[in-house]
Each structure stands twice: as C-alpha cells, then as structure tokens.
Amino acid sequence: MTPPKGPLAGLRVVELSSYVATPLCGLTLRQLGADVIRVEPLTGAPDRTRMPRAEDGTSLYFSGLNQGKRAFAVDMSRQEGRDLVADLICGTGAPEDDPGGAIAVANSERYADLCYPALSERRPDLVYALLTGRRDGSSAVDYTVQATTGFAMLTGPADRTTPTNTVVPAWDIAAGLYLATGLLAGVQGRRETGRGSHVRLALEDVAYSAAGMLGYLAEAQLTGIDRGAAGNEVYGTYGRDFVTADGVRFMLIALTNSHWRRLVDATGLGDAMAGIEKALEADLSDEAERYRCRQVISALLGDWFSRHPWSEVQPMLASTRALHSAYQGFGEIAADGAAQLRDNPLFSELTQPGVGTYYAPGAPLRLDDEQVPPAPTAPIGAHNDEVLTGLGVDADRLRGLREEGILG
Predict the structure, then answer these.
(1) Is 278 within 8 Å of 302 (Cβ atoms)?
(2) Known active-site residue 172
(3) How far apart, in Å, are the Cα atoms of 148 and each of 140, 170, 175, 203?
(4) DSSP character at residue 161
C-alpha cells in the first residue's frame, strides 16, 4: 500500500495502539504522507470489532480510523515476535541508512523490550510517543476523564439531575492530534540535533489543560462559582436553540455586536430590547450583559421564531450574518442518496472490503488546496510479507515464521 504524496513522504511510523487517540495520530500522519504500519496481535486488535459495524460484523469505527495504514500481525507474547517489531521500529542497519525510521507511537507499555528505554538503547535517535490515561501511567479513557475533570457537570439540560458525558470523545481526538504534533516536533528536533526524544502525553492532562486554557478552573478558584449545565445556551455570550412555526429546531449564536444589532433590526424587536435595557439596567451591546439577560431576550426571540416558518427564518438569519444551523441527525445527513455527502468535497466514494461502497471523508487538512482522499483499511496482517521483506527477511524465513505461529 502506497502512502499519499505529502510533506511526510519517506517517514515510517510504527503504531502499537488501539481505540481512538493513537490510531488518530497515525491516521493524521499517514494523511500527510507517512508510511504508517499498525502492529496487531494475530487475532487482530481489540478495537477491530468495535461498533458501529457493517452487516457482516466489520467495524466501521476501525475502518474509519485506520485508513491506508499497512497491517502487520505478529505474536508479541513471544520473544521472536517482539524482536521483529523492534526491528521494524529501529531498523536493521545504521541510522544513517534508515533516516525515515525509528518512529513509534504507542498507548501501552505491556512489553518492556518494546518501550522507549530498551528501544532507545539500540537506536538513540528514536522518536517515541506514548499515551497514558493519567500522568502516573494508570489507565483512563475519554469517558472517565470527562467524569474527573469537571466537564460532565457542564453538559446536558439545565434541569438534569445527573452528570452527562458528551458522546464525542473530545479528549481522545485532541490527544491524537497532540501526539501527532509531538512526534513531528521530535522528528524536527532529530534533524537539527541527531538525537531522538520521548514524547509523553496523558489523556487526563489534555482535558485539564483545556479546562485551564478556557478559564473554567480559574473561575472556580477565584470566584467560587461552580457552574452547572445550561442545555444549549452558550456561556458568556448570546446563543441557544429555537423552534420555528413549522417545527424546525435550530441553533443561533449572535457572537458579535454586529450580529446582535442586525438580528434585533431584522426581527423588529428594537423597542422591546430597549425596554429590557431600561428595566434591567443593561447594555445589550456588551455580550456579557446579553448573557445575563438571556432568559428575557430568549422569550422575545422565541415568540418571534415560533410565528415564522424556517423558509422565512433562514434567509433572515443569513442576512444578519448571525451564526445558525438547523439540527439534523446522521440519518438525515445520509438520506436522499447521501446527497449532502456526495456534494461535499470532503467526501469520496470508498469501497471497503467487508463493508461495501459508501461515502467516506478524506483528510480534513488541505495543503496547497490538495486533499488526500479516503483509503481502504487493510485486513489483519495483510502486509506481513511486504513489511518483513522490506527488513530483509527472505522467503524461507517468512515461511518459517508462519509455520512457527509467530506470523498470521
């Protein structure tokens, strides 16, 4: 399998991973041109069967996160299997003979001889990225991190009685992109100094870092405010969901003062909003004041929207440049012959073995307006011979490895 052309062409990344963050790191690097080899047990990685699945049981989740990677399956419980993986990471010759190698990303330290200390003794210029759940190395996943870092208390309807996790694994996604950034920084550092690096990232640290950057933790420390859930209201500015006369629910955000003025003018609610300012001693040109007065503002806007159909509301909102979108589910997006996907340049038809043909996204990042299209995900061990031949393993040794049960 040939990686796409890109700035990382010639770079080989060995991925020892599962689930979201580390596979996303590998996918991101592959979309930028790297040759990414995903290493799995002989029976496949544990996320190969994760839902959602196609009718025959093929994981659509796994297929999406592992597009275009080479698949290498080996028995890592045996020393000879681990030696093959170490050769794959470190190469079998001098570093100068393999400048694109010695790069790995992992989310487990199960085997000591496949961890950074052992591998870097053999290859000092190794760039190795490790993801853990917590900084002390203990386990955590996105949904438990949501619980411990406070975000689940901000999610869900305002009248909810229990914490609510978001279904989007935001910290996994952010961690995957952080890992890709860290690996690339390590590769650049190696070019400058000749030395490798050990890139470490904890999933929980990603969430705490975001809570700090967004000011949530500082607010709690300095004011004592323990902010709770607020449904679809946007904290600190004016935004929430509304329903039109014909039942279309949409999200509206008046992010700037210009948005706000145009929205008030277009709805003819200028006098009413002036009355709010007078009654509540508010200046609605200030987004913090709009947030403070959001309930009475929403009562007026909600009444206006409830008396007009979406066919009138949508062009009116477009004229104000206020940010807005009607809600739709995945089923609606994929309906009508998947017209929304077919007409979106991000998507292309992809034929995935075990699944069929469907519209899949390519790389969201475009370089010089070039976009990498989606690619099929390989079956377990599909590239065993190709990968090991590249390491200099001959046909007789390949046959022996299969007979010994080290290769699938």
Answers:
(1) no
(2) yes
(3) 10, 14, 17, 11
(4) S
Whether residue 127 contacts residue 186, with contact meaning beta carbons closer than 8 Å, is answered with: yes
- pTM given for the model: 0.93
pLDDT tens by residue, 59-88: 999 999 999 999 999 999 999 999 999 999
Q: DSSP label at 377?
A: P
Contact 121, 90 (CB under 8 A): no
Q: Name the strand (E) or helix (H) holding 356.
A: strand 356-361
Name residue, tokens 């599962």. 18
Catalytic annotation, pick one of 75, 125, 172, 205: 172
Nearby residues of 271 by Cβ (< 8 Å), 6 or more positions away = none
Token pair 């449904």 in the structure block, residue: 231
Question: 362 — alpha (psi -120 to 50), left (phi > 0) or beta?
Answer: beta
What is the DSSP secondary structure assignment for residue 66, as one 8-state letter? T
Cα dihedral sign, 339-341-346-352: negative
Token match 């080290």: residue?
A: 406
Phi-psi region of 171 (alpha: psi -120 to 50; beta: other; left: phi over 0): alpha
Helix, strand, or coil (residue 322):
coil
Is the distance from CB of 376 to CB of 350 less than 8 angstroms? yes
At 80-92, the pLDDT tens digits run 999 999 999 998 8
The domain locations on the chain are 12-210+378-403, 238-323
φ, ψ at 279 (rounded to 5°): -70, -35
Superfamily for the 12-210+378-403 domain: Crotonobetainyl-coa:carnitine coa-transferase; domain 1 (3.40.50.10540)
Question: How do residues 91-132 score in pLDDT, each as one tens digit?
Answer: 887 677 677 788 999 998 899 999 999 999 999 999 999 999
